[in-house]
Each structure stands twice: as structure tokens, then as C-alpha cells.
Amino acid sequence: MNQFGFYFNQTRCIGCHTCAVACKDWHDHHDPSINWMQIKTIEKGKFPHLFLTFLAVPCYQCEEPSCLAACPQNAISKRETDGIVVVDQDKCLGKEKCENTPCLKSCRSKSPQFGQKVNAKMQKCDFCKDRLSAGKQPICVEACPMFALDINTIPELQKKYGKQKEAQGFIYSPKIKQAVVFTPKPLVYS
Fold it and tell me: Which of 69, 91, 132, 148 could potentially form a cystine with 12 if both were Cys, beta carbons 3.0 to 4.6 Å apart?
């Protein structure tokens, strides 16, 4: 399998949320609670010595996804061709019928989302698999004005950007093995 992964350059991100807005628009999400791409603000220090950075949080397409193991309906699977974690909404019981929404509770980045509709089915980032199969980049990557995002196979990302698996606000888990490469922002207080 050529495991696809996500690259995020924390030194370039300005927290503009263009990636998140493009994602909502492309996937036609009208529910304000659905955000397949989330941007976290990370603040550290005390005035006048402050540190600010951002962290893009899509589904990290883990090599050993905890959501997959947690789903009682086997509605979540990992594609053999590229390692993208996908949801079969026909198998998903929905948020009211599935006791305690174990997929959401098991995910460190809270990627599984249900929305506000009654018994909504689980949904999440799938790296715009439709765009990938058409030879295009995911919409978040294409939309980023700072060129802080990329998606490719893990070996290609590591060849291009290095092997850093941690960044400010993110800790890599050897148990679930998030498919991610970072250029982290150094912790320097201004």
C-alpha cells in the first residue's frame, strides 16, 4: 500500500481558515457544526513574551485508525490502495442509534463528525478522494494561499519535507500512527 499522508508547514500558516472554508464549500456543508478541516490556535507564554501559531487538523488517515477499531458496525474501512480511511454511511447507525458514538470518542483529533440532523451519519475528511482519483489535489491544499499544505504518499512527503512527525499542539502516537509530516514552528517567544 502507498499510504497517503498529510503535510503541514506550521511556519507558513497564518490562520486564515481558507482551507477550512474551501472544504466546507467544496463538500457543500451547510451545517455549521461540520468542519472536516479544523484550525487550532496555539498560544503560549505571558505578556510580553508570547508565542502564537496554528495547527491544521484534518483526518490524519492513521495507519492504525482508532475509529475503525471502535465502530461496532464495521462502517469505517481503510482503502488498500492508498490508506485513506473512508465511511460507509449505509452501514453507520447514526449518532442517536449508535451508543456513545465510539468512533468520535476514540479519535484524538475529533475527525469523525455527525452534524445536527436527527440521527445524522458519521462523516469525515477523506482527502477529497474524488479529486485525488481525478489527478487533482484536495481542495484544502489547492486553496491554501500560503502553500502550507500538501498531500502525497508518506515516502514522497518525507523525501520532500523530512520525517518530522510532531509540531506545536500535536503529539504523534506510535499506536495509531497518524499519516502526517510537519515543518513545525520553533517555540520562540517574541
Answer: 148
Angstrom distances, CA of residue 90 to CA of 12, 105, 122, 123, 125: 39, 21, 10, 12, 17
Distance CA 190, CA 188 (A): 6
Model confidence at 1, pLDDT cuts 50, 70, 90, reads confident
- pLDDT (tens digit, 9 = 90+) per residue, 35-69? 999 999 999 999 999 999 999 999 999 999 999 99
Residue at grid coordinates 487538523? 57
Where in the chain are the domains? Answer: 4-183
